[in-house]
## 1
Amino acid sequence: SRPIQIVPSVLPADFSKLGEECRALEEAGVDRIQWDVMDGVFVPNLTFGPDVIAACRDHVEVPFEAHLMVEDPDLLAARYVEAGCGMLIVHAETARHLHRTLGAIRDMDASPAVALNPSTPVDAVRHVLDLVDMVLVMTVNPGFGGQDYIATMEPKVAELRRLIVEGGYDVDIEVDGGIGPGTIGGAASAGANVLVAGSALYRDPEGLGHAVSDLRARAE
Ligand code: DX5
């Protein structure tokens, strides 16, 4: 089985001090930091331009991934790589030519990944599993943190896992949305090994470090 990775979403962090917040997350032992990039068109919310991420890049060593919830990922991808994101996650629903877009990200020496909204079938990524390092199965409808986990995504994660294993692909499965102590076990059992948590990390009364280690233990 693939190593468990706990990846925080910075969405619930204090936006007035994102550099310090990234340092706190790194000290809490996270594996990567996810920037939820939203353009106000593909999803009804607007968050980080590349300059915000670039401003935080040198505050920490931990890798950054950009979850591009944007209408036109081809337009912006290079900017987020330049800003310091080692992995770019493109929504299958937004790339007119997903196969080409993922190849272009690899050509920028970044790690390509693809995301599926809850209603999008696994089949949408069947023909690009050889191009990606990770598939993100959304377990909420993207746009906001703090939403309820959509448990019906677990069979979808299991189906994707089967596709990856049968094809012999070296691909991680990430889930994002509503992941916390009560839901992470089901997501991991279904086959997810990269788990994104936002609000669950910040609401742990014992702090980020405890939240990260507790989630990691529940996913193992
Ligand atoms: C979806 C966002 C959220 C965020 C995590 O638009 O991407 O899923 O990462 O939010 P929580 O963990 O609070 O559901």
## 2
Amino acid sequence: MSPDVAAVRDDYPVLDRSVNGQPLTYLDNAATTHTPRQVYETFESFYAGYNANVHRGIHELSHEASVAYEAAHDRVAEFVGADGREEMVFTRNTTESINLVAHGLALPEFGPGDAIVTTEMEHHASLVTWQQVAKRTGADLRFVRVTEDGNLDVEHAKSLIDADTELVSIPHVSNVLGTVNPVRTFADLADDAGAVLLVDGAQSAPTRPVDVDAMGADFFAFSGHKMAGPTGIGGLYGRTGLLEEMEPFLYGGEMIRHVTFDRSTWNGLPWKFEAGTPPIAEGIALGAAVDYLDDLGMDWVRDHENRLAQYALERLSAREDVTTYGPGLGEERTGLVSFNVDGVHGHDLSSILNDRGIAVRAGDHCTQPLHDRLEIPGSVRASFYVYNTEAEIDRLLDAIEDARAKREAYLASDRYSDRLY
Ligand code: PMP
């Protein structure tokens, strides 16, 4: 049976609060989702029940913390279709996961004559990282074009991914356009070229079923705080053979097996990549978050996201003064829509929306080159999650109408003078 959104909302006490005297309408989920009580209560049970450092202790509390922390790796691995904890490294977030691959694989291995192929729809977490790797190694950095309708140009990708290519890095879902990219096609292209494929799953792990094996990803990076989990925890799936070959990213305790004054050997997977005391409570809570999402059913989450995106697109594109970006009505999307309203600056609009208790994001969403490509300085993004409703999208549309009306009234008033501009 499909979950009832009213019952889902009961899991999130924050949704009962008001902002500026209005009910909170939280439409900034692509930045961070809210955390249900089933997840944040795991913090209380950890700190009230068995808080201790993991791996090192023989005592009971350390044993209980270790068992829970390790089991969370298994749960999260299973959630993305990985074989087990050996393939699931806990990191702070997507950004750190991508940087781990940069430091562990790309910086030590790549050089002049090698190529990295990425896309014009990259988040800065990926784009800036590969830009720096290219600068430091002398590798060539290539960008797959985004088409007018917000998709990756696969023909262009075919012309870029060649025998020199060592790494292909693409987002599974664009955080601005909502596009769901054909990862399998890119996996095949990478495979034929002998390159590894890194998939930025920051926007897909929260919003649709993920199977790293079926998509052919060698690496898959994601963040807990975008998928009903806490901040400070994320994951990197990596194929075992690759993780085994890779250099550690950080050095220190927990990641070693044996240390002498001259040399050190590394712990087994995934601990080789988790130096120092890890985010124990956060890791256990990430396990609870994936349990929570699995209980809702990821097929349902995907369909709910798509339904809300289609409804928002339908209502926004019915307005002549609104431009939306990315795949159009009827095409598959995740639950986010970026748009601009003629004559109303995004920051002004989001401030007017905030007056009505509506949270959206305005700006470049960490994708400045994509906005350059779209020839716009920024956009407003409304993004939805499991607890959002069509009524909340109606509230957004009412507020946009209000913002437009205020602007028209101002332009018609004697307070306005075009000589000022
Ligand atoms: N990639 C994409 C596609 C994203 O949407 C984000 C977050 N906006 C990131 C990477 C970075 O995530 P984090 O800040 O959690 O590392």
